[in-house]
Amino acid sequence: MSAPAQPVVELSDAVAVLGGFPVLAGATLTVDSGEIVLLHGPNGAGKTSLLRLCAGLLPLERGEGRVFGLDLTSQQVAIRPRVGLLGHHNGLYRDLTVAQNVRFWGATVGATDAEIDAAMERLGVRGRLADVGVARLSAGQKRRTALACLVARRAELWLLDEPHAGLDAAGRDELDDTLREAAAAGATIVVSSHEHERAAALATRQVGVVGGQVAA
Amino acid sequence: MNRWSIARLVAAKDLRIERRSKVLTNQVIPFAGVTMVIFAFALDAKSARTDDGFVPLLELVAPGLVWLAALFSLLLLVQRAFAIEADDGALDALRVAGVDPVAIFWGKSAALAVQLAVLDMVLLGAAVLLYGADVPAGGLVLLVVTLVVATCGLACVGTLYGGLTAGFSGRETLLPLLVLPVVAPVLIGATRAVESALGTGGVALSEGWPWIGLLTVFAIAFGVGGALAFGPLIDEAT
Amino acid sequence: MTTTTPAPATTPTRTRGTGTTATRLLGIATVVMLGWLVAFGLGFSPADRDQDEAVRIMYVHVPTVWVAYVALGVTALCSALYLFTKKHSLGFDRFAGASAEIAVVFMALTLVSGMLWGKITWGVYWAWDARLTSFALLFISTIGYLAVRSLGGSHQQRAKRSAIVGLLVVLEIPLVHWSVRLWNSLHQEPSVLDTDGDVSIEGLMLFSLFVGVIAFTLLYVWLLLHRTRSMAMADLLDDVGLDQALADRRAEGASS
Amino acid sequence: MIATIIIGMDNAFEILGSYVITFAVIGGFTWRVLRQGRRLADQVDDDQKYWT
Fold first, then answer.
1. ipTM of the complex
2. What CATH number has the domain spanning C25-45+52-189+206-234?
3. Domain-embedded: residue A1
4. What pTM value is reported for the model?
5. Nearest chain C residue (CA) to A13
6. Cβ of B143: how many Cβ atoms within 10 Å?
7. Contact A22 C152 (CB under 8 A)
8. Residues C182-223: pLDDT tens digits?
9. A30 at B interface, C-beta within 8 A
């Protein structure tokens, strides 16, 4: 493996604060293009915050951070369209159907109908599920719909927070396949998971997070 | 994707959600209707003396009550418009995706304006039915123009402050505190304009048009100001 | 990358309050001027030809209005300075916040003394006078601004959010004033006087008013300085708490 | 003697009331500002107070 010219994520001594509490206390992390990085660590270690910082949802209080070589604080606007976050929330509109949700997110980047159909196909939400309201979906189906939205809006860096949570065994297998496919197609993935063995098999690298810092 | 088409996309999305969830038709409009009825209880069926002799009090104050009910309903609609974004983290997702905030503002304002316009018409209908207000043919143009311009202004203010308070605890109480003083000019202007359009209490039609100027300036000021302010307000990270 | 709590060799003193020699002198001058204001306003200055004794309320009313507007102006100016300067200095934000707090207090006083004046002059406390009504709406909006300040988040988040809301309040002022003016012109003007309360004032009366404006302006500056310093300390304590929490958080990482 | 003049004047209630309310509120606010400053100053080192 040759080292890529430009790391996708570069955090150096990053501090982020939420409600006066330093959720990140000097995290340093580099993620190269095409990697699938697994974040593991105890609850409250700062995994979610690390993902939210990279997604631009948490301001960088101290330290430095770059995503795609762009500064996290001053060049946020250029970073955002290329990043997708799937957190504890799915970011779906519960009153719309699966297809309407995916279409909406795809349309924000001007995706064609064919691309949107392909995204739904890949996540297995195209046929019968497509016209079901999101409110009536199971947790796993919602997760798949949310991933379809990420695919539809062509995110290059996927930040996934506990994506396995709430999925059944088949759903988890499908998810892993999807992530491998996405990585093969050029996406960079940072994923946090409690499903350690499963995620370890998936990941190209594991990183421990503890006390708001990245373990060496 | 340019700003205009994203705004249209957001507006279409909000209206589609309303069509599927029917919060406006099943909850907000009934609320507005009940408000109109209880106004009548509060004011009683008394008459007031005007230059034209005795006029039922309710007919005299009907335009004001219509807009007052519209303001209260506006608060509900704004809460709803941002609840759908905040419920499952969609607002966060929009921010992560870097969707142009100006487009979000215009899109959500437009969707809110459409819903408000429907509500206004229902309220006017209620005023005609319940309060005995009547709409002369000559005032129809003024009435429609007032309705459109006032609604645009209200929708812009509502979207702006709805976005500001979305996601904070205590937003239900903060929103009225911020919105009501700001929309006072709309309440005043739209009420007087509708009074002229309906000829309430013998107000001449020509007296209504200066108010349209006020309402237009208001709508433009908050349309532009809101578009500028909305992005930085909903985006906490930069 | 270990704990870096700044540990000075000697224990620093914590005795100094928010006052300095300058603010103490300012405070003394304020108290003296306020004393003069009472003496002239209630004692030496004569009753007005038109307003009679009611003019005495003007000696406190006009200075409170003046301070309320100055304070709001400072809030707007500092909000704009915060937003449109590169550095985004929290100093401007604190000036804006402190000034708005003072503005709310003086606006409330303006409304009260205005109503008492109205009771004497118009016979009613509230005459739906254009100036009074738009001032009341502005008062509520300023309270809203303070509520937005207390929403939480980091200092920079608070500063940006409240600066924008501060400027929106300014945008609202002319619209509210215009609409209320136009609305008010439909009603009969209060007949006793011009709504401004402008009367031909001269001599001792003008001097009393002058004393009042000076006294209240000094008071405003004094309050602004003290309040801003308090806010700076509150922000500082938050940051000190953060340093401590950061050290704890890092230790948590090292120990496990 | 000033007191008797004041009490004797027309509308003494409104006039005195406006002075009393104004000065009482200002006094209360000033006291609060000072107390708050004092409380915070006890927790902050002198060399961090930019005005000293």
1. 0.86
2. 1.20.120
3. no
4. 0.88
5. C1
6. 21
7. no
8. 877 654 444 434 445 455 556 777 788 888 899 999 999 999
9. no
